[in-house]
Amino acid sequence: MRIAVIGSGYVGLVAAACLAELGHKVVCADHDQGKVTALNSGRIPIYEEFLAELLQRHRGWGLTFSSSPADAVKQAVVVFIAVGTPMSATGEADVSQVEAVSREIAGSIHGRKLIVAKSTVPMSTCEWIERSLILNGCDRADFEIVSNPEFLREGSAVTDFLYPDRIVAGVSSEWAAQIMRQVYQPLLDGSYALQAGVVPKPESAVDKPLYLETSLASAELIKHACNAFLAMKISFINAVANVCEAVGADIGEVCQGVGSDRRIGSRFLRAGIGYGGSCFPKDVAAFRAAAREFGYKFELLDEVHRINQQQRVRFLRKVRMALWSLRGKRLGVLGLAFKDGTDDVRESPALQIVQALIEEGGEITVFDPAAMANARNVLGDSVRYVTDAYAAADGADALLILTEWKEFAALDLARIKALLRYPIVLDGRNLYEPAEMAKAGLDYHSMGRASQPAAHPLPRQARMAG
Ligand code: NAD
To answer: Going from the N-terminus, what domains does the chain have, and what CATH number goes with each?
Structure first.
């Protein structure tokens, strides 16, 4: 099938590469000429496991790149719109990129094309795309709109796309439904996973995804409801963690007890410094705003957002409680990405905490396995960049863990202790057991658990600071 994907960001590029992997002929178009040039010469602008392999396999044959969405659309039967829908200043989804694409491609739609909204959009956006295409000269008989929200997670985007739990297609005709089934056929019948040399199936993946055909409105709503629910789960467990601290309970034990109830499940029940990234914060705000637009005040989502913001403030308070004044204090920071497995720092709680620490006069040394270049675009020269976790700890008054990278959960603790000026670790992601840190002689502060005094006495100054 000939497919155009408009937008080559985290979703567009992954979708384009994966659709080529499924055997389709894909043109991925982006109006950012720099990105297109980079992609055409084999450079990949984002970090995502398996993406390099897929691009190497399909670039120039099943997958080409173009800076002209209009040209890409001319060659395609199915057109995926995967441009950004960032948060506007007032909290609504800014759908101007989607509108711009609709305007831009309207003139290229001849013959019957299926326009697929893959971007996360508020309810009724598909109706607006249709209206915009017609207003910009497109014949109503020449196209149909489908809503096909994307559920991939950065860090495991390729395997999420190729081995999804479910595929949702909001359709309004059998013609559209049939084309969508054809697009995803190798995933729906499980045949993709059986081919030689394909991206390996994760152990946790289902054999065949649920394929859910819905109305356009339901498909749009499913995506927002899904992200809002996951954000709510995170804020809920963070609120419980705060109660744990107040009563001396342990959030790890509580999560085990709560998460083992199969009606609840243990995923997304990890206390920490809160959610971030390009999706949850904006999608919670956009869902709240869209619901309001349709006459429903979704106040639960206000609270989800408030608890999330509060987690960063609580963590900063912990840093102050451990070190007293932060002016002139040297802090080693592990993690800048909004989560592990990605270089994305958009709305990253880690980055926001670093910025707050700088404002309080801290001298910050940072390390992240993938997000250093993106972080540098935001932090500039305000921090010192180093190339591994131990260099970040070297001479620091405390070590802060802000992203849950696996390698940060397996540090040589004796070496960390020897490198730190004061043996203080503040862990915003609960990567260690308090008892293990105490045994290593580290003064350990985490989320939703009692602070564990080090087994070996701290230097006098550090004890005063705590
Ligand atoms: P992104 O900002 O990384 O990428 C968007 C791309 O679209 C950019 O490369 C930009 O240059 C391009 N673009 C913008 N306007 C264009 C135009 N008129 N013509 C051609 N190209 C244009 O965004 P993203 O993270 O890929 O997200 C895209 C959509 O998918 C958003 O709605 C997002 O909410 C949704 N989504 C994102 C994720 C995620 O994990 N990032 C997951 C699921 C859904």
So the answer is: 2-214 (3.40.50.720), 308-465 (3.40.50.720)
